Amino acid sequence: MDVVAACRAFVAVSGHGSFTAGAVAAGIPQSVASRRVAALEEHFGAQLFDRSSRAVRLTPFGRDMLPTARRLIDLADALAHDAERARRSPFRLAVPDTCAARHLAAVVAEGHRRQIHLEVLPAGPEERARLCRTLEVRAGIVPVPPGDAAWRVPLGLAGRVPFPAPTLFLETLRPGRTTRTRRRILIQPEDDVPHVRDPLTRLGQSVGLQPAQVVTTRSLIDAAAEALSSPDLLLCSLRQAEEFGLHWGPLAGEPLARGYDLSAGARDDAHRLRAILGPAIARCLGVPSNGRTSDEDPTTGTEQQEGAS
């Protein structure tokens, strides 16, 4: 027996003094109202209504039970309201602050279509990790080594003039005997993480670059401005290079890539976002649309870019 539904019928009939009028008020057939009240009486082992006359009157037991039945209905309505509000409450997601607004809007829109009401919070890599640790967000897209990543974004160098070859060799940036020009590699904050910064620094040292030629900038805007106004090169994704109107090319040797995964306080939240919004998140991060390996699940948006040669 649905006790709440039975109490609704009981309260409606008592308020109208008639099973017919009470059923209409409750939005159910009269026969259903009668069965529900009868089931409630059987459950409690006492009559709620005196049916000996044309008018339906409460019995003393019914009068005693009516206030509690009303409170039960109010509590059930409050519970349903709170459940709906909780279901529609924003799902706070920390995202890279390098994601363009239009791509973030596409992720949020896809979430709406899939009944996930996202509230995105753009932040740098350290701040996203902190927000996840302190549970200020339900989940965050955090940097991880590419080998452990759900999404991987290949990185290369971008400059204001075209490169003479499709693949860039860092040794070409060494200052020569006849020139003192020191073209720098600019690392934006999103890539100031060990699995990107350290391999690049080691590679630069191995080919003879000076320490001052690999530098971390305060912001992506500062880095892009330097690349647009000087011979310096910006370490970035192909999408970022296109957005700034820069010429881009991959590095020779071991490829560099951003790695991303979801960090969430509840494992189910991370699994749900990967399964439902994985492809949209991949597009937002700038994961190439090709290069998916055969052992990856196409529903997750997990893609891998093979090293350029």
Summarize the SSE layout with pairings.
Layout: H1 3-16, H2 19-26, H3 30-44, E1 49-50, E2 57-58, H4 60-88, E3 91-96, H5 101-113, E4 118-123, H6 125-133, E5 139-143, E6 151-159, E7 185-187, H7 194-206, E8 214-216, H8 220-229, E9 233-236, H9 238-244, E10 247-250, E11 256-264, H10 267-285
Parallel strand pairs: 3-4, 3-5, 7-8, 7-9
Antiparallel strand pairs: 1-2, 5-11, 6-9, 6-10, 6-11
Helix pairs in contact: 1-2, 1-3, 1-4, 2-3, 5-10
Report the strand count.
Answer: 11
The largest sheet is: 9 strands, mixed
| CATH homologous superfamily placement of the largest domain | Periplasmic binding protein-like II
Assembly type of the shown chains? single chain
Rounded to the nearest angstrom, the radius of gyration is: 32 Å
Number of domains: 3
Note the overall shape. Answer: rod-shaped
Report mean pLDDT, rounded to a whole number: 88
What is the CATH-assigned architecture of the largest domain? 3-Layer(aba) Sandwich
- Helix tally equals 10
What is the string of SSEs from the N terminus onward? HHHEEHEHEHEEEHEHEHEEH
Would you give the CATH topology of the largest domain?
D-Maltodextrin-Binding Protein, domain 2
Q: Structural class of the helix and strand makeup?
A: alpha/beta
Helix proportion range: 40-55%
- Beta-strand content bin: 15-25%
Question: What distance separates the N and C termini?
Answer: 70 Å
Stretches where pLDDT is under 50 for at least 5 consecutive residues are 291-309
Q: Please give the CATH class of the largest domain.
A: Alpha Beta
Biased composition (Polar residues): 299-309
Region (Disordered): 287-309
Family: Belongs to the LysR transcriptional regulatory family.
Protein name: LysR family transcriptional regulator
